[in-house]
Amino acid sequence: MTDFDTVFQAITAHATRAAEKLRQHGLVAGTLTVFFHTNRHRQDRPQYAGSRSTRLTPMSSDTFDLVSAAKRCALAAWPKIGATSYGFTKAGVLLGDLLPYEQRPLKLFDTQREGAPALMQAMDEVNGRFGKKTMVLASEGTTRAWQLRVDHRSPRYTTRLSDLPVVR
Description:
alpha+beta; four-stranded antiparallel sheet; 4 strands; 21% strand; globular
């Protein structure tokens, strides 16, 4: 991944999945960290590791809130214009300060986007019914060029029944 858009597609996918898991477990996050780095084992290539954190106020499990915060962090950590072109191999999102939704600290003037909980519930229901990644944010992209290529992966005999060899 060499450009910001591709790296951000991966970060969006990770933030979206993290938000789904938060809602599934009835939690909210208080901090979000975005990271990305190059392959440290390839010393012949330029090296870079970027990471930024932000506090989520109010604490949230809303996909749009997490992706928005992730974009701010990714832009802050991105190499400056004119820097060497880097080939990033890993990007991700970390969530911290997790609390049950009912125990989250409330602010005096907490505002929530109108319809946000219903929208998140509808998104989760569609993805639950028709399969993961049926409904995604546009910033996640459609090609998923950043995703691992598993063409040469060995079978997982010990963890998947479908990969067991069949004797006829």
